[in-house]
């Protein structure tokens, strides 16, 4: 009866059995093909069929709210795919797990234990050290005359995130500890491999792999993703496992001697959690899955938003001037900007909101799976459909935003005196909302803002001599800037501030 009353959202007709899978295979990158189709069909909701799977694409805030707010409980699951299963050690974490007891358990662990306000406060010193290290690292590049005083902003931003999360997770910036001894040391080969593996993971999970929709094809590796997934997993295991095993050993020895020590980092939390009978709450696989998950949760969004914001601002001196005026007024030049300044840096937060709006790292929010038949925008969404919300469809939507392709931070200053990076009305997606929404808002916001504010306050950024305007072109394969942003940087604060950190 229900199926007769409602019809599926509009979409291409597709072939028997395979649906539109042949188009998905031949139109790379798939997200650009999907956006072309949305435009051609002039629709904000579209249904594609890949094999037996309905993939419903949503590209306006109103329908996105119907999915993630009104019908949040129905859409609280995630797909089962080869990549998500491998990266999560068989769905032992929270981000990639389908709805169920394991997801609930791990979401509780991350929300109430890892991201608790008390621990966030306790680890403030670590974050502050990494913010200092960022300034020191860029300053050293300026001082190194052989490097022509230009800074690869992408490299700096991505490795700031990598350093930050390794410090919070493992209490280590570098996998091989002696590197820490050299104060301005950049990433070594292991850290570069680590960050690359995390980005490769993010680029391959939910990436329209043919076996995501035809599970019988798993093992044939038709689009080469399985090889990549095995490579990433091997790298993460090689780098994470020794640290995790050493820590388990340390705590087990302490337990045997009836001793304890204070919790120093996220890994300590995972290793020491106990169930109601005093037994370890998490298995080794759960610890490994949660560790990997925390690592990749923070690596892409902050670094990509800051790189894009800076690139946009290089072409808009009036925006840069307003940001610098705010920093001068709120912080001044006699001290470095701190996390405690963030609530008063509204213009800078508006710049980051604008970067999230226009330049998300991922074209789509991670898929949400319908746990029962339901209706959205009057259309039938069958059980097991994957719903993907287009982040550019929301953020660059001309019905919502005036001049959507213009970087105008002022638009975020209209409605609120305290600008935040969240957007629960889903006029664009930053942290999303609902049951599967991001629990890392506080940590994610402070990491993003400290990266941005320190780079702006610490340095004057100029263009390379032969460059008139920064080319704001997206990569052909994803939404990152086509080429890493490379800019000359000059210190703008008194020398003693750089030399004292
Ligand atoms: C600027 C930084 C960050 C941004 C923009 C961001 C954004 C997001 C988004 C868009 C989602 C998907 C929500 C959905 O499916 O509707 C998500 C999920 C998630 N994020 Fe974040 N995130 C950030 C930082 C973090 C941090 C620091 C952590 C924790 C260390 C974290 C942990 C998670 C988890 C556990 C989920 C999965 C929730 C679930 O599926 O139940 N995120 N995040």
From TrEMBL:
Coiled coil: none annotated. GO terms for biological process: secondary metabolite biosynthetic process. It holds the Pfam family p450. GO terms for molecular function: heme binding; iron ion binding; monooxygenase activity; oxidoreductase activity, acting on paired donors, with incorporation or reduction of molecular oxygen. Its cofactor is heme. Signal peptide: none annotated. Keywords: Heme, Iron, Metal-binding, Monooxygenase, Oxidoreductase. Heme binds at residue 438. InterPro entries: Cyt_P450, Cyt_P450_CS, Cyt_P450_E_grp-I, Cyt_P450_sf. Belongs to the cytochrome P450 family. This is Tyrosine N-monooxygenase-like. It comes from Panicum miliaceum.
